[in-house]
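Supplementary Methods, section 5.1.

A reviewer requested that the exact input to the structure prediction be made available. We therefore reproduce it here, unchanged from the version used in the analyses.
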Amino acid sequence: MYYAQAVRNTMGPHQRGRSARWPFHRSQGIAVAAFLFVLFAWAAVAGAMTRTIKDEPAIVIVAFGTTTRAQATFDFFEEQLRRELPAKYRGYKIAWAFTSEIVRERANKKFAKAGSAKRYRSLAQTLANLEDEGYRKIALQSLHIFPGQEYEDMEKVISAFRTLGLRIEYGGALLHEWPWVFEAVSVLEQHFLSPEEGTNVLVAHGTPETFPGSNATYLGLDRYLSRKYPNVFIGGVDGVLTREQALDQVKRYPVKRVRLIPFMYVAGDHIMNDIMGTEPDDAGAPSWAMELRQAGLTVDTVETEYRGERYFKGLGFYRGINHMLIEQLLESLKRLEER
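The structure derived from this sequence is encoded token-by-token as follows.
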């Protein structure tokens, strides 16, 4: 239970015993703890004979994940990352980790059925694999938008692996600081309809829990948008900024045209089905677009072309958004050089 104890050692007294904030289900935590116990016990005995400790760091990119064709968003990001990395970093290994257990399970089944060797790994598995390959320094960057529960759980895994000897530097979520919030909105502004043309709704994921700090970011963003733009609103699939509030504002607006703009890193299942879907869901509820069209509005969204195919334009298809995240990664690489 070395790994599990390491996680507990990184938690403050106010966090211990709060199972709702624990990053793994109990069965998953036990499995990971057992795996890492065997891994590090073996490494202590045989590591010096079987591997060379690497001087350079590895780069780890952490995302929620998706099982849809919008996986191309991650390819787009990695291509931009490799272009923007300074020459001295371009030979570094880039590994990916995905925080959603459900997405990992479904994606890996699809990969296996297709005969692909590709797999989605958890952050714990990815860091353990890198340690086993001889890496002792990691520069990590999250692609999460809000500093919510997924991001906090990621930090706990990082803290645990730090206690096991890895030097890990990492950046914040995209909207971790208010200047970053304002910059991200300015990147999207190019797609906003003018007040004379209609309204815009930023479609976020949201969080169903009340305790994550990301709720403050959602509410602050809503306030910022309402003060700066008379025709830009925000709604979430879950959480405090509800679908009903956003769509009611749109319906009351005198110009009956609306643009639904994905405010998620990947415009995957939620955007394809819950937002822009053309058929009701299993419970009979219409998509946002269907509801608005039934109310007499003209609805569109933002799309992009990549490798000859059309995609809904999630935040990961904006070079300006990716540049913000890459800049944070570069700062992490610099900190590893200074220590």
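Residues 167 and 202 are 37 Å apart (CA to CA). These observations are discussed further in the main text.
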